[in-house]
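Possible regression after last week's pipeline update?

I re-ran a chain I had predicted before the update to compare outputs. Posting the input and the new output here so someone can diff against the archived version. Not blocking, just want to make sure nothing changed silently.
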Amino acid sequence: MLIRKFVAEDRVAVIDLWLAVFPRSTGHNDPGASIDRKLAASDDLFFVAIEEGNVAGTVMAGYDGHRGWLYSVAVSPVYRRRGVGSRLVQHAESELTRRGCPKVNLQVIADNSEVVAFYRSLGFGVEERISMGKLTGQ
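New output (post-update):
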């Protein structure tokens, strides 16, 4: 498996993957728009895992100088249970650490116990926080 930065030729495969893996996604998380916004940020923290010539998984990370974030960690059902997700998360964590990031955060849908267990296995813990959000005029 190869983990590398996202390139334009990955776009269709990544959109297809996200539509399959994140079926409850809301309008502001439109895959194409999310990709465009990430590329506009020009921070080089968008990675794909390539297995057998296919996009097997993705991770986007962000760092604002205070905390790092993981987004869009997705693994194709075909490639699950092979370490793809773990390696993607670890790769993103390494890139964030290299940039001086002291802490990594992520959000998980509350009833997604399988994903919570996955992140716990990687050392993440549930923190007593209230996640709040607000859509801005786009």
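Follow-up from reviewer: compared with the archived run. The chain has a mean pLDDT of 93. Marking as no regression found.
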